[in-house]
Queue: 3 jobs
Job 1
Amino acid sequence: MPELPEVETVRDGLERSVVGAVVERVEVYRDYSVRRHTGGPRDFEGQLVGRRLEAAVRRGKYLWLPLAGGDEALVGHLGMSGQLLVRTAPTRTVSPHLRVRLSLRDPSGAAIELDFVDQRTFGHLSVAELVPTADGAPGGAGTEAPLVPVPVEHIARDLLDPVLAVGTSGREALVERVRRRRTGIKRALLDQTVVSGIGNIYADEALWRSRMHFARSTAAMTRPAVRMVLDAAHEVMTQALAQGGTSFDALYVNVNGASGYFDRSLDAYGRTGQPCRRCGTLIVRDEFMNRSSFRCPVCQRTPRPPR
DNA sequence: CTTCTGCCCTGGGAGC
DNA sequence: TGCTCCCAGGGCAGAA
């Protein structure tokens, strides 16, 4: 499932393949896939036709393509199973999970199809207004413009954002924000209003690398401990991005959670019953927020319950 | 304001 | 073989 590194791979692909192209036709095959769009799917189609895609921007797991001729953007979230596939030649087979198709014309006159394919339909597209960022800094990766779409306004910056770079005041402010929370460290890492882009997989990987239990109280954590887990999250996502980038094909912007990075490099996530790569103890699975959490029971000790 | 729960959705795979 | 049920989980509404 796409988290920050996968979404950044998609953003990079879109930047190279569809930026500069003009939307000629929009087909919505599944209304549910166009959500949080004022006006509904028909209005979505009308808003896009004739507009040129000006950039490809990402914050956390949100993507957006600012549209020429107005402060609006095509906004996308891939959810669990979403893919944005770029094709420059007609295809014989159409995915049964094709939800939205944008037919584009690039500056050279060539036809491009941008397909939103999403099996589980947790992802969605919309057109939304762009508004200034609260801090005046660029809205996300891939742009210098200090703008974000309205649905992204409440989404915090992610760890690859220069505003949150290690050693900056932004990073230290994030450390303090985490310490002010009254919750467990994994809940804080997953809260997209605190820091964005971290999902269940990379949260578990960051906690394993930091030797921390998911339920450790944020309020009781020292600054160095919070720095450590944030650095670990940053590191694991950077490494994943480096691997995801190598398999990228410019003509096929792909997101596939089952490929590449996932199979080879995970230390905790999904490794129930397999030996911890540090100490050999078998990884366990815990119930957490109605989903799963994977950890080494020795490296990541259960914290004392608060009194 | 903060924290937390339940729900949205689909199809692959396990279990019988 | 065929049926049923569980599971994956990001983000949001609404409750506490």
Job 2
Amino acid sequence: MPLQADLVVRLSRSALAEPSAVVARALLGAHVLSTVGGAQVAVRLTEVEAYGGAADPASHAYRGPTPRNETMFGPAGVLYVYFTYGMHWCANVVSGPEGEASAVLLRAGEVTHGVEVARLRRASAKADRDLARGPARLAAALGLDGGALGIDLLDERQPVRLEGALGSVAPVDVGSGPRVGLSRGGDTPWRFWVRDDPTVSQYRPGGRNRGGSPA
DNA sequence: CGCGAGATTGACT
DNA sequence: GTCAATCTCGCGC
């Protein structure tokens, strides 16, 4: 049964196997629960981005499978974690049919459980709303790193899980716009967020100059 | 408060 | 060698 924008759907592998833009939107309001490191931290997703496979120049899977991105080519509902900028981890939920390599980047959320632990992991955060506001911050708050790569988020026995329903945020409350931080492919409105939610990361127009280029 | 640049490692060309 | 789905700090207004 296809996901519909105005219908709440049970979280299932087949539902997550739909196109990443559909899944991304539907994931808003769902929870990511982590017991990594023994402590329990939960985040309610408030901002996500969809990434396609071979047809999306902004996707890690654009140039085909590599050791780094092979998880994206697997079944939906699996965690794809990658390391970037020499210091940050970012977390994605693999979506789409197996072999298509689409995924949903978890950009921001509200910490609903384990705030104390999240504060320890994100000591630089001044306010609680900043604990998981931004993809690397969200991963840090949940304690996610390379060790979480490949975890099946639908397996109750795993230390990281997806819970809640798909499509739980009403369409009226969902905003959309261009993706963030990309040099290419930033034109597609594949970023989705919960309107008026304080934990949504601040939008910065793409194409920031990178330092070092002489005038 | 807003903008600009550095940090720091690994993956890919 | 270059660039990366980012974050934070510091400076200038």
Job 3
Amino acid sequence: MLKEQPLHGYELKKRLPEVLGPLSRVSFGSLYPALAKLEAAGAISVAAAADTSRPAIPMTGSLAGEAAAFRARRLPIRADRRGKKVYAITERGHALFEELLAAPADADDDRAFSLKLAFGRYLSPEARLRLLERRRAQLVERLEQARAAMRAASERLDAYARSLVEHDTESTERDISWLDRLIAAERPPADLRPSSLSDPSAPAADPTPVP
Amino acid sequence: MLKEQPLHGYELKKRLPEVLGPLSRVSFGSLYPALAKLEAAGAISVAAAADTSRPAIPMTGSLAGEAAAFRARRLPIRADRRGKKVYAITERGHALFEELLAAPADADDDRAFSLKLAFGRYLSPEARLRLLERRRAQLVERLEQARAAMRAASERLDAYARSLVEHDTESTERDISWLDRLIAAERPPADLRPSSLSDPSAPAADPTPVP
DNA sequence: GTCATCATGTAAGCCGTTACATGATTGC
DNA sequence: GCAATCATGTAACGGCTTACATGATGAC
């Protein structure tokens, strides 16, 4: 999100659900430490702290001296001046982002894939296709294993467990065909790479048909 | 699983995937502490430790005294005699199981629902129906929120994020109709509660149709 | 006699959460 | 002036994982 504009933590948290659908939900307890880590790593930097330029001593009145003394007494404890910290992404940050986005995901971390796809626009067409096809291969393997496990244990499964496993299998199948559609959409339209073999009206071939 | 027969930890871990489909995967690092906690809570008990009845001092030979001394020196450190620990479920365990299985699940903990349904056979028909309908209501709410979020932010979403959110929405819809089928299957067949209103050939009414 | 497998456990660590603590800004 | 909200952070904890440590059993 910082690739589009500098933002501060609170704002980031507010916008996350809009950008990622309701599948985000990061708590402050993990957001702020994450920002601190990214800043320490040089991936982001504080573009502008809160405009702490309140009039040096506003309405200098009788109590101002006392208040200033009080403030001075406790300020040293926390060096930061508790205001908005607007972060911007750095060059290193862009590089890190690309690296993380292109990195192969854990086979069983579904969220990682979703997150990467959500930012698919920042990937090169090739990297995007790799992401989709890697994911597809993982789902196909998962499906095969699930089917093998079913064959091995289906008689031990009662109706509820079986229904669960079957529903799960169907979901995976649907995920695969969804990926197929995304993959097909990634391929350049036929009229951009004309050849004697391509017929614009023919449906795109399935990369590897689901059995 | 202990409801069906006493088993030891290693065996439990081996069988888990068969019983729950491949959606289980518990590591030893969490399984053994869990068993220890359950035992401490009185939910399970060691039915039979490993048959440690090896001949008291097998083949008493020249080195036996030395070996025994060595063993005696280090045995006090670990009181247990490292063998199979076959656990059986206790009365308290059955009660705890039922309590946990019937407890309302966290709205966003999908795994909890799956786990409960997998052991649905141990629930009373009423509790089972409650489980299914509670889950259905949660999914319906999730769907509504997702759609509201989409309406609010759809123009900000690019093709990838949108496709993701839409696919997610469809999955939820399918989950709901799957639940509807399960719920319908729970209802006693028409010929068991005959009434002037029930027509065996008419399709079951959807509890609350998905819009 | 030694290797693979069975079998149980502990320790360190990661990742994320909730609850808490603090402070700044704004509207009434 | 004071409440709501914006805004940042820390602390404690929970749950799960991997890596490590240990030991028993059986096959060859």
